[in-house]
Design a protein that fits this description.
It is a single chain. With about 200 residues, the protein is of the alpha+beta class. Helices cover about 35% and strands about 25% of the residues. It is built from seven helices and seven strands, in the order βββααβββαβαααα. The chain has helices spanning about 40-50, 60-70, 105-115, 120-125, 135-140, 155-170, 185, and strands at about 5-15, 20-25, 30-35, 75-85, 85-95, 100, 115-120. Strands 3-2-1-7-4-5-6 form a seven-stranded mixed sheet, with helices on both faces. Helix 1 packs parallel to helix 3 and helix 2 (about 60-70) packs across helix 3. The longest helix is centred in the middle third of the chain and has 13 residues, at about 60-70.
């Protein structure tokens, strides 16, 4: 199992139905993973993100108290599976034991503990997608364009790497495309003077 850290980018609503989701970003690939949650869970997460602290222990504080008393704390919070739109999260205790959890509860705990969230790579490959900077800014008020690697031709570094690997498996190289290693055979084709 390969777990990849993701960035948390808050609660958002989408579509005409105004469904609520948490947006997680796989920064390395510049891909977005929406985790759909109930409006009640979204309201609680959003309130905490905006600095609300309950006067009495809420479910996150209660869960954290029980975990700290019984096992010594939480070492990781992961989203480990995805099936037909339903995500499965795991809270890893300091003794290595894992507790199955709803993503909304796991995310609430991660936010309370200020812990990073990790997602199984297969889940990211299946459920995340590239969204253009313009769409992210228009619909969600997010902009990441400055952070994306400039060398990615399509904006999706993984797609570019896959394409490059496929071309190499076909026997192609940079020289075949007029790259820096251009040979004399192709120089005439590029309008360059042959030596």
């Amino acid at each position: 199992m390969t777990l990849i850290p993701v960035e948390y980018h808050g609660i958002h609503t989408a579509g005409p139905e105004q469904f609520t989701c948490v947006l997680l970003r796989w920064a390395e690939q510049n891909r977005i993973l929406p985790v759909w949650i109930s409006p009640i869970a979204a309201a609680e997460l959003d309130a905490r993100d905006n600095g609300f602290t309950p006067r009495r222990p809420g479910s996150a504080e209660l869960l954290l108290d029980v975990i700290n008393r019984s096992s010594g704390g939480v070492s990781a919070i992961n989203i480990i599976s995805h099936f037909e739109g339903v995500f499965i999260a795991s809270i890893v205790l300091s003794d290595g034991e894992e507790i199955d959890a709803r993503p909304s509860d796991a995310l609430l705990l991660a936010r309370s503990l200020e812990m990073d969230i990790h997602v199984e790579e297969d889940v990211l490959n299946q459920a995340s997608f590239f969204v253009s900077d313009d769409v992210l800014e228009e619909y969600f008020g997010l902009r990441f364009g400055d952070e994306v690697e400039a060398s990615s031709a399509s904006g999706d570094a993984q797609a570019d790497a896959d394409f490059e690997q496929m071309m190499r498996s076909l026997g192609m190289s940079e020289a075949d495309f007029g790259g820096e290693d251009d040979t004399d055979v192709t120089k005439g084709d590029n309008g360059e003077e042959e030596v």
